[in-house]
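Fold this sequence, please.
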Amino acid sequence: VKRLLDFYIPSKLFQNECLPLCDLQPESSFNFRALAMPERRYFSFRREGQVLMRVCEKHAGAINSEDVHWVLGFTNSTFAGEFAETLVQALYRCPIIQAMSFSRNNRQKMPGTILSADEEEDDGSVLLANLAGSLPPWVTHLTFDNILSKRALDSIVAILKSMGELSAGCGGTHGIDHDRDLSSTLSAKRRYSQPPPAGHTQGTFHGLAIRNHSHLSGETFKPFFNLLGFGSSPDSLQYTPLITLKILDLSGNRLGDEIVATVLQIAHRKESRCSLEQLDLSKNDIGT
């Protein structure tokens, strides 16, 4: 069972939320469905999206419970072309998918080795980073396991900053109701005119996992950590969507003492208004 969970739901914190094996959590559903996509290079998700929609309709109709945690996962795959755009279109037709997972367990680079710009581009991880601003509001858990490049992580930071700016332009409320796609203000407004399904609200992630990226330096993560909360003067900073994040998995990144201390300082400082409840910092070379 543990090996099955590790494959479909790499983050231990996410595993514990739906199927706890170590501690009792009465609110956990103990019920999940995982859809694993084939390992290959994806240029589009149009045909796969049609199959996914039929699978979701079939299984959703046979399940009465609303507590099922549905995960769509990609392992050891690369991405290009219109993949991100067509994947998002498919997810909007499959509102039962609550979590996305992108993982790689065959990276050939040694820890500490920086990928070249050509390798990053061919890898397609920057396309995945753009999903952070495009996913439907019911996709509340997102996992990147050993798959992001430096450019991809920088792109995630830029997208989340843009979300904060758009939120400020809409009044800066902490319960934002706009779409996460910020490719253009016009397209966002078109989608914003379409209300989400009942029971769902547009907004932020409940859980985010960026784990096993030891090929990235700790300094690369600092701009991302700054999005977890306000600085010393909240009024002077834009709202950041990650300020409502409840679960953050940073395990296996080998961040080191100094970078880990930065994360903890943000999480514990009252002025930051950070909402983290669970934080995994294991395998980060703490105290070494």
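The radius of gyration is 18 Å. The first strand starts at residue 32 and ends at 36.
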